[in-house]
Structure formats: C-alpha cells, structure tokens
Amino acid sequence: MEKSTWTTKAGLAQMLKGGVIMDVVTPEQARIAEEAGACAVMALERVPSDIRRDGGVARMSDPDLIIGIKEAVTIPVMAKARIGHFVEAQILEAIGVDYIDESEVLTPADDRYHIEKQQFQVPFVCGARNLGEALRRIGEGAAMIRSKGEAGTGNIVEAVRHLREILGGIKRLQSLPREELMSEARDLGAPYELVLEVAETGKLPVVLFCAGGIATPADAALVMQLGAEGNFVGSGIFKSENPLERGKAIVEATTHFRDAKILAEVSRGLGEPMRGLELTEIPQEQLLATRGW
Amino acid sequence: MTVIGVLALQGAFIEHIKKLNQIGVDAREIRLPEQIAELDGLIIPGGESTTIGKLIDRFELRAPIVELAHSGRPLWGTCAGMILLAHAVDEDTRARSQPLLDLMDLTVRRNAFGSQLDSFETDLDFPAVAETPIHAVFIRAPIISAVGPDVEVLSRLENGQIVAARQRNLIVTSFHPELTSDDRLHRWFARTAKAATADLLPTTGGAKIAG
To answer: Looking at the complex, does the CB of residue A40 fall below 8 Å from at least one CB of chain B?
Structure first.
C-alpha cells in the first residue's frame, strides 16, 4: 500500500471536477455550502472582498477555525497558505486538510519563490494567469490549477482573461513544430518536459478550475463553456443576499453549463448578487492576481 | 451496439467515458432523465456523493435510474457512486443531508480511511473478473461496512474490509478503475451490459417484437 502518490493527489482534483468549491468563514457557512451542493469548501477567516476592504497582512487562518469547519462537514476541506510560506503549509498538513491553496489572496511571504510542493504529502492547488505560470506551479508539484481572476471583485473579466490565456497558450503549443518548443519553454518560463507533454496532449497534466470573480450562475456557466473543469466561488456566495439559493444555483449552472433553458431557470429570483468592483477602481498595488512568480 | 451512460452531474465522468471509448463502447454523458431509457447500462462515477445525490433529485433522475436498475440492466457505482447505491451510510460519516438511491442491501462508511492524507494505491484480488490482481486507487474512499444476504462480496483489502460487491445487476467498487490503465473491469461491465440487453430482448433485431 502506497499513500499520497501523485495519482491520489491529482486524482482528488479529478473527483472535484464539474463541481463548485465555496469559500466559508464559519462552520455554519460550511454547512450551508454542503447543503447547497458544494463539492468542497475553502476554510478561511475572511473572504477576499473583506481582505481587500480591511487591508493589512492576510495570513493562514487559525487552525481552530479550520478544524471547526472540518468537523462541521463531510466534504473535502481546503485551506490557504501564503505564497512561499512552507511552514504554514506544514501546519495545514499537520491538521489534515484535504488540499492546500498556495494563494495570492493572502499576502505573499516570499517575493521570489513558491513552496516546493513535491515534498508534501498533501496536494496543492495554485493560481495562474497564463500557461507559463500554470506549468511552473505544476513543476513545483501543484496537483491542481485554478485561473486566478481578481478575487473579491465579483467581476468575471479577469477570470475570463486568465482562462483564455491558459487555454490559448495550450492551443498555441499544439500548433508549434517540435523544434520550436524548447525556445517556447524558455519564453514561457516553463519546464521543457511539461511543455512537450502539453503540446502532445492538448491539455494541462492536472485539473483546471476557474476562480476569482464568479458571482452569478451565468458567470459559472460562462467559464465552464470556455473550458474550465469546475469553479471556485469566494465572496460571490456569502456576500450575496441569499447564499443558500445562490449557492445551489451556481452548483446547478456548473453541471448544466451548456443548457440555456436550465441556466435561465436557475438564474431566476436569486436576490441581489454581491456588489461588484470595476477593475479600474482598484489601485495597481492592490491587485491580487499579480502576486506569484 | 452497446450504449453505456455515465452520470455526468459532477465528478470524474470523463475518465469513465474515455475508458469505455477505448474498448469500443458507445459511452454518453447523462445529465437529464430522458437520456436514461435507451441505455444498456449506467455508471455512477466518483465525485462528491452529497453533490451528486442532491443533483439527482433536483433534476428528477431518481425514478429513471431506479427503473433501469429494476429492469435488470447493469448499474455500476464507483466510490461516490457506491455510496449512492447503498441502503444506508454509517451514522458518524453521514452528511446532514445525504440522498441515497437505496438500491442495494448494503451499508457504507464514507471517508473510511480518513482525510486525503490517507488516500492510497494497492493491488487487489478480484477473482470474479481477473486472474491477476487489479491495481486500485482509493481516494477519500468509502468501504462497505455491512452487507445483506443477497449481496456477493467481490473484493476485500488484506485486512478484510469489503471494497467491491454485487447484488444481481448492481455492482459497486470503492476504488477508481477509471484512473488506471487496466481496463478489465470496464470490459467486464460492458459484457454484462450486452448480455443483460440480450436477455431483455430474447431475439436479435426487431422481427420478433410483433409476435
């Protein structure tokens, strides 16, 4: 018997596909997320829109909070560590979270390097804005990738941009003759072996979810039609007027993402979505997506 | 041609479809009730059992799945799918809201090995199907904690825990044959589906139907 193999790490992400992973800040919210049909929850102290509002340094959550949420639900529980903060990751592994998100939503602990993720037993998900970033994270051991978007804005435009960048980058690799792939790997800043693999298979070697800005069932279906394999929803659910109903609707839209009749049905009467932020209203230094190297 | 559906509400349905396509079976993603009637067999894949269970009820798939099971056509649940086919879930591992199809006389224990850190791979004897062991991937996997008299145990871990079983045309496995390169279980399921449909329509072609 072999534990924590690559197949089990990447395999858990396969099991999450077609589902919605919801940010929750209390055990009660975790129960609502499970009731709404979330396939996993992300346990944290503040959702991204509050982190954005409060400013200051955002760190890993108190283990008490994460353990409380683990005890409240039966679905997988993820938690966030700061970029490069391998000790936060060690602590999250020690309390038995199911997945660690090395996340730009928290304040980076290292402005040059990410966590070396291969040596951990617990699997990692990381954000990416483009193919090069995604392949660097996979090279470091990430078993799942999410497009970054701009967390806490309720504005889908950045998520769409990042998804198109990643998927467009894959199509480009497929179109290149083999002799060009080494230079392309250099330009992408990505491991050559992974570039070769993606050029051949036409997909990332791990599951690709979308994150950062999903606020409505239509947003969820939009990114699924673009090629995401599932969704992370942060502030979009618990910053809306009716989290349970909106959560259910986003789950249903993620399943039936190509069926416009069902999308119309589930979009009705959900109450106010979270208030969105226009990207130009955000000062450059407060953009979260640019964190990550 | 044999047509096998894979319930595509959430989870690893694409991996089952690829596997079936590789062995020459027509496999379809199933999301709506009206897609089930014409199938020769159905797989409920791994994923999150609470999510899939809720979506089965919200989109009215329960009745056609139960009908398929009662018609004698084969139904195979892997991991989350195994939980959904069960009659009951051990109290301390059950979600507050845990819809079950209640088609097989067995009780399951969810996340029986612990958190993701306890997910593992191992070789399993599966004598009904394979002469040599099957490589099995267990991810936050359930086990079968109790079986009724009509249930045949198909495989156990070395410590005796039951990880695969059959009751008439219904099959369950705790692990994920869709994640490995071994296709023996999928071939077996496809043969079972073909045989079951042949039993439902005793002669080939449509000639006999009028008589």
So the answer is: yes
In the predicted model, is pLDDT for residue B209 greater than 80? no
DSSP type of residue B211: -
A234 forms bridges with which residues in the sheet?
A: none
Residue B79, chain A, CB below 8 Å: the answer is yes
The DSSP bridge partners found for residue B43 are B6, B76
**Residue (of B51, B54, B7, B15) closest to B32 by Cα position:** B7
**Which conformational region is residue A30 in: left (phi greater than 0), alpha (psi within -120 to 50 degrees), or beta?**
alpha
> How much is the average pLDDT of A170-194?
98
Nearest residue of B to residue A99, measured between CA atoms: B116
pLDDT, mean of residues B59-65 = 98
Q: Which two tokens stand for residue B54?
A: 């809720």
Residue A136's contacts (CB-CB under 8 Å, 6 or more residues apart) are A114, A189, A190, A191
Six-digit token string for A177: 């003759």
Task: Kindly report, residue by residue over B64-80, the tens digit of the pLDDT.
Answer: 999 999 999 999 999 99
pLDDT of B58 strictly over 60: yes
Q: Is B38 a catalytic residue?
A: no
Lowest mean pLDDT among A49-63, A65-79, B95-109, B164-178: A49-63
- Is the per-residue pLDDT at B204 higher than 70? no
Q: How close A162 gets to chain B, by Cα (Å)? A: 24
β-pairing, B143-147 vs B41-44, is unpaired
Q: Is A290 on the interface with B (CB under 8 A)?
A: no
CB atoms within 10 A of CB A270: 18
Residue B28 burial by Cβ neighbours in a 10 Å radius (0-12, 13-18, 19+): middle
Unique residue bearing structure tokens 């290292």: A110
The domain spans of chain B are: 3-200
A126, β-bridge pairs: A102, A145
Assigned CATH for B3-200: 3.40.50.880
Contacts across the A-B interface (CB distance below 8 Å): 135
Residue B82, H or E segment: helix B80-85
User: Which chain B residues are within 8 Å of A17, Cβ to Cβ?
Assistant: 10-12, 14, 47
Give the H/E segment covering residue A135: helix A131-140
Q: Is A16 on the interface with B (CB under 8 A)?
A: yes
Put simply, whether the predicted model's pTM sits higher than 0.90 gets the answer yes
Q: Is B179 on the interface with A (CB under 8 A)?
A: yes
Token representation of residue A168: 């467009």
Q: What is the pLDDT of residues A4-54, one digit of tens each?
A: 999 999 999 999 999 999 999 999 999 999 999 999 999 999 999 999 899
The answer to whether A36 and A75 are in contact (CB under 8 A) is: no
Inspect the interface and report whether the beta carbons of A122 and B121 lie closer than 8 Å: no
Give the pLDDT band of residue A285 (cuts 50, 70, 90).
confident
Is B79 in Cβ contact with A34 (below 8 Å)? Answer: no
- Vertex B146 angle, CA B144 and B150, to 5°: 100
